[in-house]
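Give me the fold.
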Amino acid sequence: TARAGSVGQLVQPGSAPAPLMVANLQTLWMVASVPESELASYKLGQPVIVKVAAYPDAEFGGKITYIADMADPTSHRFVVRADVANAKRLLKPQMLANFNITLGKPTDSVAVPINAVTREGDGSMSVWVTQEGVRFKRRKVRTGLTQDGMVQIIDGVTPGEKIARDKALFLSNLYLTNIN
């Protein structure tokens, strides 16, 4: 993968830089930095799907082969490494990648766009519910996972209810202005 030597150069064992670097690129390590709060969800052998910007329509499969024993003291994140098959040698070392790691079986639940949820001053989350699309009422919700621009609503909204899908923060600010 790299050449630092030249023809006729004297090379001693242990001298830096090594004259040649050789690597097997059939399987690459892809490294993710995961939050401390999610560490319990990751297990060795879990399937991983990796996508890179260079090949937006391609998915590369692999599995988790290493979970760090210690967090980074600054970010409180753990290294999770996956071995990813690279038979066609499309992946290159040092590429940035997005991971999709399956943590459990899919579940059906209510989800709303990220812009529909507002964080209140006390840390709780809320959405604006309407029946006719003219008058809105704030409702506290309990949120779950966030994925692909959507937020899972665990409690507080039922399927089929109408909500303000966008500009919920604007509604919150307008509501606070009218109260004061």
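Residues 11 and 19 are 8 Å apart (CA to CA).
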